[in-house]
Amino acid sequence: MSESKLVGYEWKTEKGEKFSAYDGGLIPAKVSDWSQAEKSQLSGKTIVHIYWILKDGEILPFGKNSAMKELGIKAGTIKKMAEEYMSQARKQAEDYKWLLKSIGSMQKHSSIQNANNAYINTNYSPMHTPRPRISYLVNTACFCLNNEYLTRQNNEENNKVLTELGFIKVLEN
Length: 173
Hints:
This protein is α+β, with helices and mostly antiparallel strands. The chain has helices at residues 64-71, 75-104, 112-123, 156-164; strands spanning 5-11, 13-20, 25-32, 38-39, 46-47, 49-55, 58-62, 140-145, 148-153, 168-172. A hairpin with a 2-residue loop joins strand 8 (140-145) and strand 9. The model has no long low-confidence stretch (mean pLDDT 85).
């Protein structure tokens, strides 16, 4: 038997209402979406708070108690692990939104050369240690959409966002 490992946490939610004693009635809130529920591997219970565990090469859904039993850990530990996953997911979403917004507002250029020159000019500073201007293009790529070009860092996140926006990678510098 291989070792099990927690690889994610998810709460299946929808927009709904909940009672608020403070407000004296129903207020808009995020509530559990039971129509998207999964079945816990150990208990067979229907769950909306899902702890995704890698077990024997498969990623499987577990409820909180089943996950604690499977992983051999305590309630506080699994809660902390879930909070870390949620925090990472929120940060990735925020980073993604920022990247999407920043790329959308960037000036596109009529040629690869113009896009590369604009990237160098934006990132070049005589205040830094002197180096050849061309070295600023290391680990960059040029992307094209509707005959307009944009040079960005060549990394998975940029590539994903630009591809979703319809850009095609035309050159790796």
